[in-house]
Amino acid sequence: MYPFGKGISRFVPFLLLLIPLALYVLFYFGPSVMTVIYSFTNITNLPGSGMKFIGLDNYHDVFFSGNSGERVDSIIRTLYFMFIVTVVQNGIALLVAVIINQKLKGDYFFRAVFFLPVVLGVAVVALVWSMMFDPLSGPVNQLYQALFGYKDMFFGSFSHAFGYIIFVQIWMYMGYSMLIFLAGLQSVPKELYEAGYIDGTTKWQSFRHITFSLIAPSFTVNMLLSIIGAMSTFDIILATTDGRFNTRTMAYDVYKETFRGSLEMGLPSALSVVQFLIILVFVIVAVKQMRKREVEY
Questions:
Q1: Which residue segment(s) compose the domain that 103 sits in?
Q2: Which neighbouring-strand residues pair with 44?
Q3: In a 3-state reduction of DSSP, which class is residue 41?
Q4: Are 165 and 241 contacting, i.e. CB atoms less than 8 angstroms apart?
Q5: How many distinct structural domains can be found in the chain?
Q6: Which residue ranges does UniProt annotate as crossing the membrane (predicted)?
Q7: Which residue has the higher pLDDT, 104 or 227?
Q8: What is the 3-state secondary structure (H, E, C) of 207-251?
Q9: pLDDT at residue 6 is higher than 70
Q10: At what angle do helices 68-100 and 216-231 cross, to 10 degrees?
Q11: Cβ contacts of 252 within 8 Å, gap of 6 or more
Q12: What is the CATH number of the domain that holds 163?
């Protein structure tokens, strides 16, 4: 029976849905469509300036303008960042989730500790690690000096700064991936492990054929979140190196071109569309492969 009565009351749920739908169109779908439109124009931030359709000129400038080499390097650096973060973050998160799922003493405490960086936010995390990696008085440099007789510039190093940003990214979001894996692990029926034990399976065989297969949906979700999050990261870079020392990524370039570059809006819009298309390709490939694995299991 329809729970909202008859007559005009039947339309109440649809009217209530208009509010979130309007907010979605206003703040998400609308700006996305306008970004695509702007990428084909010469629009600027100047008040009263006109907008003229210029075709693919902005996309040409992304790859072939005077500083296009830096943008290509940013794309390559972003792909490297995405690959390392996705693999390492999910690998560590899965390992930690498996350990915590063993019902160890204080497991709720460890869950909170590992998830804490997600709650802290980018500004706090960047401040903490900037202090930890201080090249003059930071504790990490003192540890390096004591153990290896070596000092580093950390976020001020052309060769190492990007690696430390990758470390901070993984440290911050590993707890989020861990909770998703943990939820998947806790949904695995205990009877399957008992049956495997009776059949003589080892712990590795039990993990590979029972645990890993049944948490495939959790693995898919974490892979997608890691890919999208890593490809969209610019806030940690902004707060630690501000794009210096070979740490610029596509997302940072979009931010810089939009808010701190020229007054043009067409070029950063084109760069945003290119970034979206790259993310879309990787997401489609990842979903296809992960779903195939879920079906196989």
A1: 39-296
A2: 264
A3: strand
A4: yes
A5: 1
A6: 12-30, 79-100, 112-132, 161-185, 206-228, 265-287
A7: 227
A8: HHHHHHHHCHHHHHHHHHHHHHHHHCCCHHHHHHCCCCCCCCCHH
A9: no
A10: 150
A11: 74, 234, 237, 238, 243
A12: 1.10.3720.10
* CA dihedral angle for residue 73, residue 75, residue 76, residue 81, rounded to 10 degrees: 120
Q: Residue range 190-208: average pLDDT?
A: 76
Please state, in angstroms and as integers, the Cα–Cα distance from residue 4 to each residue in 1, 11, 15, 57, following that order.
9, 8, 12, 54
Residue 25 lies in a domain: no
- In this structure, is residue 137 part of a structural domain? yes
Residue 34 lies in a domain: no
- Please determine, for residue 263, whether its predicted confidence score (pLDDT) is greater than 50: yes
Judge whether residue 98 has pLDDT over 70.
yes
**Per-range mean pLDDT, top range of 7-11, 43-47, 63-67, 135-139:** 135-139
Give the orientation angle of helix 216-231 with respect to helix 266-296, to 10 degrees.
Answer: 170
The pTM assigned to this predicted structure is: 0.85
Quote the DSSP letter at residue 8.
G
Inter-residue contact 133 to 153 (CB < 8 Å): no
Residue-wise DSSP of 86-113: HHHHHHHHHHHHHHHTTT-TTHHHHHHH
Average model confidence (pLDDT) across the chain: 84
Measure the CA–CA gap between 126 and 167, rounded to whole angstroms.
12
CA distance 253 to 75: 10
Radius of gyration of the chain (CA): 24
